[in-house]
Amino acid sequence: MKLNFKEALLILIGTLIWSLTMVKSGLTYPFGMGFWGPNGHDGVWHVALAESLARGSLTMPTFAGEALKNYHVGFDLILALLHRLTTIPIVNLYFQVVPPILALLIGFLTYKFVVLWRKSKKEAFWATFFVYFGGSFGWVVTLVRDGRIGGESMFWAQQSVSTLINPPFALSLVLLLSGLILLLKRNVVIQKKNLLLAILCFGVLVQIKAYAGILALGALFVAGGFTLWKRRDGTLLKVFLGSLIVSVLLFLPFNKNSGNLIVFKPFWFLETMMGLADRLGWLRYGSAMTNYRLGNIWLKAVPAYLIAFAIFWVGNMGTRIVKEILVWRWIKNLKKIGFIEVFFISLIVMGGLFPMFFLQAGTPWNTIQFFYYSLFFSGILAGVTLGGILAKSKTVLIRNVLMVGAIFLTVPTTLGTLAHYLPARPPARVSNEELEALTFLARQPQGIILTYPFDRIKARQAEVNPPRPLYLYESTAYISAFAKKPVYLEDEVNLDITGYDWQERREAVEKFYQLNDVSQAREFLKSNQIAYFYWLHGQRAILDETQLGISRIFENSEVDIYEVEK
Fold it and tell me: Measuring CA to CA, which residue among 382, 154, 168 is closest to residue 269?
């Protein structure tokens, strides 16, 4: 499929804009290695995990000695394989190489899919536009309230411009689009081949992004049932069953206890959207709706929550809300629509409903990622809707007004969000001194590293001009990531997400540093197979180096590294 100049330019601009959220992070500057946006935590975690997988380890890199569990490792495994094949450092693959490739693929596959499905290049162009630039109406609120453009996640969901800061999400979109294209292209000659490839695309999603796997299987089941009822064609149900089998085989080995991570908590996102100042912050409304529910005043609670959901839906959709015109037409003519339409509607609805009722233990807001898929596919439908309206417009003036209006009302979210990624100085860094120490440690034989637990109180109290050192920024996996070794305890955020009982280990570490008993201290090091200490200056145990049986192997102005004597 050949792209015209206009379409190619759109995809290139979209790829560039998306990539700006990633490519500056993970590079060294005069102040050290910088990290913009959430890359200081999320990006570092993926680097640590990919480094661990590249070493052939299936243990948790930030919880040494424990098997990796309750996490979709597909993207990180691909990253590790690319590193082994190319020798390109994982940190550069993650931040500079893979993101533009994913952005380019998503734009191209979106355009190709819509052309195959709708036979309209105009609709495909606008679908690609909304996929790259779709945003919420949060910018309207911040403009009125504060006189600035921002508010990307005011209604909780991240928007299109932030797709690449969640690379597993971006990769899952590539697989979803590829699977749908394969289903559209199937014919008598290559039908079985395409169906098998589609099963593979949908089946592996669960190890790329579990949320995508759940939604894809649900949408395939509904669309398959619809085609069986409408055309007596069970092909899609076969795709569903094949994908389900692949998903189960890939999911169970790493996620045997994952059911404990999901909790039933209806309307948490609506209540916090209204009640938190860093979200919409309509405090009186939020307080009223919550009190209605707690007081069982359902005549007021039901409409209050319905209005809150409407605000959540429209606020997040932004200009993509125009797609409701198309969806309404489909619903009125169910007998005339095909499996793609049913797949879209099912996925969008499920993506909106799941976070309304279920949260993730430890980090409740994680389940909002279900809704990311609703927004993505709504963007495609918005483009189809707008493209169809433009094609039917009778005058050039009307078409131009519609196009300018769509662009003007859509792109502010992208512009406001990029303001977080374009400043010369990032919010977080690893200093050059720490990079020197971590690089030295990476060259040493493999062994478990013991460091000081993250001090959240000290981090909050620290008055540090940006960029803030990662050890005063958040509990991250940066030592494991850049020392390329397992750490006894690190990145408590992801340990919460994946369901490890890290609090007990933290208490043991804190107790170790306060020990006066030499034999107990040495037994702790031996039983936990500690090989190295990574200490920032000022960090020490009560017992001295001789008593602990350790010797210093590295020192600079910020870091001391000790090795446990054998």
Answer: 154
**Residue 224 identity:** G
Furthest C-alpha separation in the chain:
87
pLDDT of residue 362: 72
State pLDDT tens for residues 464-516.
Answer: 778 999 999 999 999 999 999 999 999 999 998 888 999 999 999 999 999 99
Helices (H), 411-491: 412-418, 432-442, 456-461, 478-483
Work out the angle between the directed axes of helices 396-410 and 369-392 (0-180°, nearest 10). Answer: 160
Question: What is the per-residue DSSP string for 157-182?
Answer: ---GGGGGGSHHHHHHHHHHHHHHHH
Q: Tell me: the pLDDT tens digits for 41-82?
A: 999 999 999 999 999 999 999 999 999 988 889 999 999 999
Site of tokens 């350790």: 550
With a cut of 50, say whether residue 188 has pLDDT above it. Answer: no
| Phi, psi (degrees; rounded to nearest 5) at 535 | -120, 130
State the Cα–Cα distance between residues 380 and 409, nearest whole angstrom.
17
What does the H/E/C string look like for 495-523?
HHHHCCCHHHHHHHHHHHHCCCCHHHHHH
| Interatomic CA distance for residues 222 and 218, integer angstroms | 6
3-class secondary structure, 32? strand
Q: Which helix (H) or strand (E) holds 3?
A: none
pTM over 0.90: yes
| Listed range (234-238, 330-334, 480-484) with the worst mean pLDDT | 330-334
Q: What is the spatial distance between Cα 92 and Cα 26, in angstroms, rounded to a whole number?
A: 7
| Residue 377 Cα distances to 128, 384, 459, angstroms | 11, 11, 39
Between the two ends of the chain, the Cα-to-Cα distance in Å is: 63
Q: What integer pLDDT is reported at residue 468 of this predicted model?
A: 92
At which residue do the structure tokens 């049913």 appear? Answer: 342
**Cross-strand pairs, 92:** none
Cα 64 vs. chain centroid, distance in angstroms?
Answer: 24
Strands 32-35 and 28-29, bridge-based pairing: antiparallel
How sure is the predictor about 185, in pLDDT bands with cuts at 50, 70 and 90? confident
Nearest to 66 by CA among 207, 254, 250, 209: 254
Residue that the structure tokens 């859509």 belong to: 410
